[in-house]
Amino acid sequence: QPAGQGAPQVRAGQAGQVVFTALEDGVWVKFYDRDGRQLMQKQMARGETYVVPVDAQGPQIWTGRPDALAITIGGRKVPRLAENQTVIKDVPVTAEALNARPAPESLPAPASPTA
Q1: How far is CA 113 from CA 25, 110, in A?
Q2: Can you list the pairs that 78-87 forms with residues at least 24 positions away whose Cβ atoms lie under 8 Å?
Q3: In Å, what is the CA distance from 12 to each residue of 16, 58, 95, 99?
Q4: Which of 16, 21, 37, 49 could form a disulfide with 70 if both were Cys (CB 3.0 to 4.6 A apart)?
Q5: For 65-77, what is the HEC assignment?
Q6: For residue 6, is pLDDT > 50?
């Protein structure tokens, strides 16, 4: 077999290390895999980070403060999981899933260039 055959195709900018950073003190969060095995659970301090393991199978998040978690993928900022305090659970946090999310409605649309 040729080298690389059967390897998943990843578009540029889709893959990368997923990092969550607490924007406030006391942000409770639980990360777990698709089988429910806990990856991490704690109250994060402001500035504390959690790197989602690249080998985690179907990593997901459960938190009541998705608005207080900044997310980067491969060092590139992506929108938060929510703009307001709300409980989220069973939300996939792979680079692919985070990149596939629709743009938040609260962000203004880019201005159209005028000719």
Answers
A1: 41, 9
A2: 79/103, 79/104, 79/107, 80/104, 87/62, 87/63
A3: 10, 21, 12, 11
A4: 21
A5: CHHHEEEEECCEE
A6: no
